[in-house]
Amino acid sequence: MRQVLVLNGPNLGRLGSREPDVYGAQTFEDLAALCREIGRELGLSVEVRQTDDEAELVSWIHEAADSRTPVVLNPAAFTHYSYALRDAIAQRTAPLVEVHISNPNAREEFRHTSVVAAVATGTIAGFGMRSYELALRAIADMGE
To answer: Any residues with CB less than 8 A from the CB of 44 and at least 6 apart, and which?
Structure first.
């Protein structure tokens, strides 16, 4: 099976309790289970990770680049200001799809800019947890 990393940035470990009106009632564990299930359906081996630490997220992106592993990435707040994350993504060697549960462009103005979008393969936003499913399907469709 083709390996895919699903990486999540700050505060996403608090899904279910964090602003349920924006992010829904499903927990991070629910999200991880959904991603693994969709992955199995698509013939992908999905590993789901979450961190509140920018350095750790950058290290995971480096790991993916070194192993040519596709990535589904929800950079969360790092989307808007992490040039370190942007520079790590620019080194990618496989598809990387930026995802967001909500639509950042329909929210506060500071969320309208993504510093990582220009170095991602594509961006999927605003479809709730389904954003991850759509991203995994896109990666599966891209093949090796």
So the answer is: 1, 2, 3, 4, 136, 139, 140
Q: pLDDT for 93-128, tens place per residue?
A: 999 999 999 877 656 686 668 999 999 999 999 999
Q: Does 81 participate in catalysis according to the annotation?
A: no
Check if the beta carbon of residue 139 is closer than 8 Å to that of residue 44. yes
Residue 138: which region, alpha, beta or left (left: phi > 0; alpha: psi -120 to 50)?
Answer: alpha
Hunting for tokens 């899904």 — which residue is that?
Answer: 15
Beta strands in the chain (DSSP E): 2-8, 44-50, 71-74, 96-100, 122-125
Question: Annotated catalytic, 100?
Answer: yes
Each residue of 69-78: pLDDT tens digit? 999 999 999 9
> Which of 62, 100, 112, 132 is an active site residue?
100
- CA dist 5 and 20 (Å) reads 25
Provide the 3-class DSSP secondary structure of residue 19: coil
